[in-house]
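Escalated from tier 1: zinc ion holo job.
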Amino acid sequence: MQSQSIFSIQTPVGPPVEIIRHTFASQSLQPSKRVSLVTGLHGDELEGLYICHRLTQILKTLEEQDASAFKGEINIYPAVNPQALETGTRLWPFFSNDINRTFGRTEPPSLPGEMSSTLLEDLKANSDLVVDIHSSNLHLMELPQIRIIKKFEKKLVPLAKLCNVDLIWVHPHADIFESTLGYNLNQAQIPTLVIETGICLRINKNHCAQIVLGILNLLRKTGVLDTDEPQVAIPEPKLLQPESVTMIQAGNAGLFIKQAEVGQTVSEGEKIGDLIDPVQGQVLEEVRSPCSGLLFTLREHPLTLKGAPLARIATEGSA
Ligand SMILES: [Zn+2]
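Tier 2 regenerated the structure:
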């Protein structure tokens, strides 16, 4: 493995902060694809860091034991927003800037803009396929999933199926996506999968292990790694179109007390939790599923305002 600093940020009083790319080079005379893994665009999303840590360990061992297994090149960008990661915040603290809303924009020069354009160009120069790993926000727990904008569906769904996620969610385009890393790479004809899993500021080892297995499977099935791993069969995820996702929203402000877990199959009318008024000692709402299906998003942060999302269900019958 070779490591290279792709961007260095001078800090006012300390040493520079750097963005690192690790590269496992191809050992083949006719190299196959170059696959890049990116994590940490949002500094409070830590599961991707753990996934990259596990993959780096596995790939380093494989490189020592059988370097010829690397038919293609693997690049790992394990912490691309170091200052936000160090403070555990979604935004780059000094600028209060969401880096994943700065890609592909031509704005007056700024440090976040310079950083995102350097990262985008480095990925374009070194990748035929990219996986960008995110966690959910502070409010909602998510089952491992890949979200795909409708217009990229044809190219991305077959690749997403290899990744051992529970579901693939194809959703309509919205202007807000146009400044994300994933959108800009897909627009540049570099297929990019955006994984969303768990919840921010936490690490769910089971979900991470599931995705590690999925990425190894992706590397193997795309001809980048010539190994027997993973030896387990990778199940096909549910493929969701927008009409097969049902969202439950709070009808009142209150505290949400959940009575279910993500990954559970619920039936129509089944209780998911209570929305309570803790001051008056009242149950404001018994939250029940309006349909049967897979509970794949569930509110984890109890403080709830009217209209806030409580759960999402993949309705039964979706493939
Ligand atoms: Zn994110």
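The chain has a mean pLDDT of 95.
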